[in-house]
Amino acid sequence: MDPTPYPIGKPLQPWGDVEKQSWLSRQVRHRSYADDVVAKIDRLRARFDVEEYGRLDYADGALPLLAIRSRDWNDALPTILVTGGVHGYETSGVHGALQFVEQHGEDYAGKVNLLVAPCVSPWAYERIHRWNPNAIDPNRSFRENSPAEESAALLRLVAPIRDKALVHIDLHETTDTDETEFRPALAARDGKPFEPEGVPDGFYLVGDADDPQPGFQQAIIAAVEKVTHIAPPDANNEIIATPVVAHGVINYPVRGLGLCAGITNARYRTTTEVYPDSPRATPQQCNDAQVAAVRAAIDYALAH
């Protein structure tokens, strides 16, 4: 048993409504989705189409879910899906997606259709958290009849391009708080013992175990390595308790786990993982790494 049990609930007993409400009462709004994200999206409206694809009506206020599209959408072109902020606390996923659109989105005009959902979980973005207010992880909830409205709304948005997408790149981070807060909270919520996995120092990718596309993954790693360092494997040749299959790459069964990376039938799919807590990386480097990953993913897909 964990010698320092999570402060909510009883060890090895799953949470009920009382424990979830206790957890929710501790969540504090640290930053503004409107100021940090919506304002940046609004500045892109002159060059891109912006749509509200859903609205989160939680007890403490409504939050619009926004997506950015290529202005001259052409069904004859391949479609690129970029998602960020599925876990709201993973800051470079959100701001890397926005930076990509701002700096490079127009570079691909006439070559691809871009669909970018930069902040899938705005409530969690504001509270620097992994879950939504119902203590549900949106990134384990991308399935039919999803219990997470964040996930359900994105599934509805993506449905028309599910079979047309060429690339889907989902932008994430692995942080020190994964090990100190979020994994312990998950274990407590589910009534399981907490088993540390370690936090890798550097960038890595999570491919789809059912269709790994190793050449695609390595092209992204090569591009990102010019911006920030790649996570080495641990002594067991693993990253977060998962075997390393190539430099900086592990694979998950993304659809079986209900992960965002499995929501389309895109030939090329991956999840980025930036490490913002490294003494060797700045916040801007983390955003730049996400941008490099997106560009490399698109360029590889178009070349192959």
TrEMBL record:
<keyword id="KW-0479">Metal-binding</keyword>
<dbReference type="InterPro" id="IPR000834">
    <property type="entry name" value="Peptidase_M14"/>
</dbReference>
<comment type="similarity">
    <text>Belongs to the peptidase M14 family.</text>
</comment>
<dbReference type="Pfam" id="PF24827">
    <property type="entry name" value="AstE_AspA_cat"/>
</dbReference>
<dbReference type="InterPro" id="IPR055438">
    <property type="entry name" value="AstE_AspA_cat"/>
</dbReference>
<protein>
    <submittedName>
        <fullName>M14 family metallocarboxypeptidase</fullName>
    </submittedName>
</protein>
<feature type="domain" description="Peptidase M14">
    <location>
        <begin position="29"/>
        <end position="304"/>
    </location>
</feature>
<keyword id="KW-0862">Zinc</keyword>
<keyword id="KW-0378">Hydrolase</keyword>
